[in-house]
UniProtKB/TrEMBL annotation:
Residues the record lists as binding [2Fe-2S] cluster: C83, C88, C124, C128
GO molecular function, one term: metal ion binding
Cross-referenced InterPro entries: NADP_DH_HndA-like, NuoE-like, NuoE_N, Thioredoxin-like_sf
SUPFAM superfamilies: Thioredoxin-like
Cofactor: how bound: Binds 1 [2Fe-2S] cluster.
Species the sequence originates in: Halioglobus japonicus
Entry cofactors: [2Fe-2S] cluster
Family: Belongs to the complex I 24 kDa subunit family.
Protein name: NADH-quinone oxidoreductase subunit E
Amino acid sequence: MSGGEHLQDQVLLDQILTCHRNEPGGLLPVLRDLQDGLGFVPEESYSAIAEALNISVAEVHGVVSFYHDFRTEPAGACVIQVCQAESCQACGSRELTAHAERRLGVALGETRADGAVTLEPVYCLGNCACSPAIAIDQQSHALVDKARFDALTTQWAQESDT
Ligand code: FES
């Protein structure tokens, strides 16, 4: 990150903290606003957040870790989520996830080295009746088997995939 970006990020963080500093339960709104603004919640922000809200850094860390929606690293250009919740698991989402990892060349929960794609777990997309479900850049797709996954993700497939 360049110095300019860091300064912009600091200004944004200060604005967000000013907005929510005196709000009961302000931690989640701070984290949401920060992720909306930056695309992730940098670990370097934890101490400033903790100080502003008069809580511990461990508490900030705990909440970021608990909620799967928060990222601590920038996402790739495309975010592909594979549902890991109960209904989708019963319909093969684990196999689909393993297929997605091979096909995209990235492990679940990580961003590929070229920054093209992030593969994330998600815990119910509200499409349980049509499991397994995935989302690509927040657009849901239901009844996704391996072939449908391949059709939906052709542009991010790694050439080494078989
Ligand atoms: S469990 Fe996967 S969409 Fe609900």
